[in-house]
């Protein structure tokens, strides 16, 4: 099984102590050991959903076994119900995630630092966070994954449930000017790229067929496809739950 490290450190951006769970593969490739190489691991930033924290995946999934099996380091931060944004009325979790946390991990752990070896993924609220980070900081991530993501925030403003949007985005009018709408970011990226998608992360969008949020995933996939993103859409039987994830 992978080695589990619980990190608690002071975040200068958030101005408080933060918790991060990190999984390090315990297996070592024999040829690397024989040649005295210092192993550097591909790294997955794995984002929890609404009400979750840095322990969510450890308690509810087989991520520890997968990390060891596939020789990948996994970083799982706590951001509470911030949607991984620089909140309208709260703390700057987007800056923490994409600047400070990445720097902390790569200074203190054997993480490969090239873009193609750094991935970001999340489920539900974390799916929004992963795609949002990939669109706003495309130079950081080689691939981004959304599992049943809360991808259409404007739709959620019309039918609020679960996540309290006001502390995160402010009023609906604030959100429209906050550069946080994934559809607007997708369109802007398409204009800026002019057909060249090499500088954007490869995007994977997946959702269970019985999930009430599946329309969000389908709509964003179609929007990205229209802008010529390297995007994949995967559906299969399942709901908005840990059995599917």
Q: Your description of this structure?
A:
- 35% of the residues lie in helices and 22% in strands.
- It has an 8-stranded mixed beta sheet with strand order 1-2-4-3-5-6-7-8, sandwiched between helices.
- The chain contains 10 helices and 8 strands.
- With 245 residues, the protein is α/β, with parallel strands linked by helices.
- The mean pLDDT is 91.
- The chain has helices spanning 30-34, 56-60, 63-70, 93-108, 125-136, 153-158, 165-169, 172-175, 182-193, 214-226, and strands spanning 3-11, 16-24, 42-47, 72-77, 118-123, 143-147, 202-208, 231-236.
List the helices and strands and how they pair.
Blueprint: E1 3-11, E2 16-24, H1 30-34, E3 42-47, H2 56-60, H3 63-70, E4 72-77, H4 93-108, E5 118-123, H5 125-136, E6 143-147, H6 153-158, H7 165-169, H8 172-175, H9 182-193, E7 202-208, H10 214-226, E8 231-236
Parallel strand pairs: 3-4, 3-5, 5-6, 6-7, 7-8
Antiparallel strand pairs: 1-2, 2-4
Helix pairs in contact: 5-9
Features of the shown structure:
245 residues; alpha/beta; eight-stranded mixed β-sheet; 22% strand
Number of helices: 10
> Which sheet architecture does the biggest sheet show?
8 strands, mixed
Specify Rg, calculated over alpha carbons: 18 Å
Return the structural class: alpha/beta
Spatial ordering of strands, largest sheet: 1-2-4-3-5-6-7-8
What does the overall shape look like?
Answer: globular
SSE string, helices as H and strands as E: EEHEHHEHEHEHHHHEHE
For the terminal residues, how far apart are their CA atoms?
20 Å
Q: Can you give the helix content as a percent range?
A: 25-40%
Mean pLDDT: 91
């Amino acid at each position: 099984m992978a080695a589990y490290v619980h990190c608690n450190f002071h975040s200068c951006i958030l101005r408080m102590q933060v918790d991060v769970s990190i999984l390090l593969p315990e297996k070592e490739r024999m040829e690397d050991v024989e040649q005295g190489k210092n192993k550097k691991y591909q790294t997955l930033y794995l984002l929890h959903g609404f009400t979750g924290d840095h322990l969510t995946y450890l308690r509810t999934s087989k991520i520890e076994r997968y990390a060891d099996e596939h020789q990948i380091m996994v970083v799982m931060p706590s951001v509470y119900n911030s949607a991984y944004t620089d909140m309208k009325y709260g703390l700057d979790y987007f800056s923490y995630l994409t600047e400070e946390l990445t720097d902390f991990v790569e200074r203190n752990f054997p993480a490969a630092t090239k873009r193609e070896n750094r991935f970001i993924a999340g489920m539900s609220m974390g799916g929004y966070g992963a795609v949002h980070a990939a669109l706003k900081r495309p130079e950081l991530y080689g691939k981004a994954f959304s599992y049943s993501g809360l991808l259409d925030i404007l739709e959620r403003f019309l039918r609020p449930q679960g996540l309290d949007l006001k502390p995160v985005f402010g009023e609906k009018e604030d959100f429209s000017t906050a550069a946080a709408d994934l559809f607007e970011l997708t369109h802007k990226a398409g204009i800026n790229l002019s057909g060249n998608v090499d500088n954007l992360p490869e995007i994977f969008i997946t959702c269970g067929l019985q999930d009430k949020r599946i329309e969000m995933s389908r709509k964003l996939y179609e929007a990205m496809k229209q802008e010529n993103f390297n995007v994949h859409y995967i559906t299969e039987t399942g709901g908005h739950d840990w059995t599917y994830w």
